[in-house]
Amino acid sequence: MSNKESNKTLLPWITGIMMVIAVAVLAAVYWNRNVTVQELEINKLTFTEIEEIEAAAAVPFGIQPDSLDIQAVADRVEKLNYVRSVSPYIEPNGDLRLTIAEREPIAMLIDGANRSYVDAEGIILPILEAKTPDVPLLYGYAVNTNDTLKDEAFLQVRDFLMKAKIDGFGWTTISEVVYDHTDGVVALSQENGVKLIFGRNDFELKLENWKAFYKLVIRTKGIQSMQQVDLRFSNQVVTREI
User: Fold this and answer.
1) What's the mean pLDDT when you consider all of the chain?
2) Cα separation of 117 and 192, whole Å?
3) Which domains are present in the chain?
4) pTM of the shown model
């Protein structure tokens, strides 16, 4: 094929591509000149009220999308207590969509008469008036502080609680948790307040042992006969009975 024939073959493709680019440019110009931000879309939330998000976002409706600092909007919303992250996006119609991930309490901190929640990252969260998450009680930490909990004791308790939540059975059968420097993670059973010693690490296996022990022994003998169940050992469960 000659160069002349080759050029004739390519010409329609080049023309088509140029037309697509021209249409895209015109569409972009039209969008920038005529589309304005009129609505704020927010995904369904558990702990944060929509009104709180709207107030924190402070979106100047009627502004053109390219004049709106959406990252500044996201930064303002992220300052709310229960907001972990915000992903902002402007829809083709101009609506501003905020996809928000919330912080989720894993325990309620008990400090005398004071109460607060804490999440898996050790962030202390205020008590919610309208919502009361069903989480275990955690002792041994100050409530009125802005510090993030990150000591080894909390990390052990955090890992235990996260495994217990995934396990499900462990989550529903414990009511209180504390870290003991000798015994490690210690919990009280939801039923009859039996002391459960989980120690340190390998919590997935220990929770499985607790589940098996509950099904094989406690359901037969009754939990009222138990005073303490030591689950620190991988191949045995040591009990102290009343």
Assistant:
1) 86
2) 24
3) 35-102 (3.10.20.310), 105-241 (3.40.50.11690)
4) 0.80
